[in-house]
Write a structure and sequence with these properties.
single chain, 239 residues, alpha/beta, 5-stranded parallel sheet, 4-stranded antiparallel sheet, 21% strand, DNA-binding, two-component regulatory system, cytoplasm, phosphorelay response regulator activity
């Protein structure tokens, strides 16, 4: 259950909904703050830690979808509950695809919102506990976690697609083991490599741009000429 030690930020341009929701949640013992839009939100979170953001999707200056995308794109993974107009299924789906954790449709029962807040915070606490107990692989400035499906560089989350993550996991599970393109395709995609399929090379090129200081002279994902690729965690040259 959420407590007053956790800070909730409501971002909504409707002052009536913003004020009524803030009052209700404060009455439930929560530490709640409010912002009328993206700019006020940005100013607040710069100097205040936030446990969860309640984000209205329909706002005039910057939509909630744009704010959600911007936060996730910048590496901010604070849990988000989006507020959608009843029946706006497409916006709700897009919001979840952009990284929102849950949604509540307007008009909403405040008790339902409180229940969603508690559920999202519980899931986030569990995720953090699993992350702290998981065995992560460190190489160079990176930490790779298969439990949380995350990649960080010097402690900063790195944006990585699910396809790139699965491909990197193939290499991380087999350090210093040369892998042919056929093996990589089978392990990452579960299918055979077509003779004209260069998708593995394209994805490895993208991974190198994420991992390597100089992707034209890679240290971690090295090429085995005439064979395939090899992952070298310490970045030393392969004989």
């Amino acid at each position: 259950m959420a407590t007053n030690s956790e800070s909730i930020l409501i971002v909504d341009d409707d002052p009536k909904i913003r004020d009524l929701t803030t009052k209700y949640l404060i009455d439930q013992g929560l530490n709640v703050h409010a912002a009328s839009g993206g700019k006020e939100m940005d100013n607040f979170i710069v100097s205040h830690p936030v446990s969860l953001i309640i984000l209205d999707l329909m706002m005039p200056e910057e939509s909630g979808l744009a704010i959600c995308q911007r936060l996730r794109g910048s590496g901010n993974f604070t849990p988000i509950i989006i507020l959608t107009a009843k029946g706006d299924e497409i916006d709700r789906i897009v919001g979840l695809e952009m990284g929102a954790d849950d949604y509540v449709s307007k008009p909403f029962n405040p008790r339902e919102l409180l229940a969603r807040i508690n559920a999202v915070l519980r899931r986030n606490d569990l995720k953090q506990a699993q992350a702290s107990n998981s065995e992560n692989l460190a190489f160079g400035p990176f930490i790779f976690s298969s439990d949380t499906r995350s990649l960080t560089k010097n402690g900063v989350p790195i944006s990585i697609t699910s396809g790139e993550f699965e491909l990197l996991k193939v290499f991380i599970d087999r350090p210093r083991q040369p892998l042919s393109r056929d093996q990589i395709m089978q392990l990452a995609k579960g299918r055979e490599l077509d003779v004209f399929d260069r998708s593995i090379d394209v994805q490895i090129s993208r991974l190198r741009k994420i991992l390597e200081e100089d992707h034209t002279s890679p240290k971690f994902l090295q090429t085995m000429w005439g064979f395939g690729y090899i992952f070298v965690p310490d970045g030393d040259a392969v004989d």
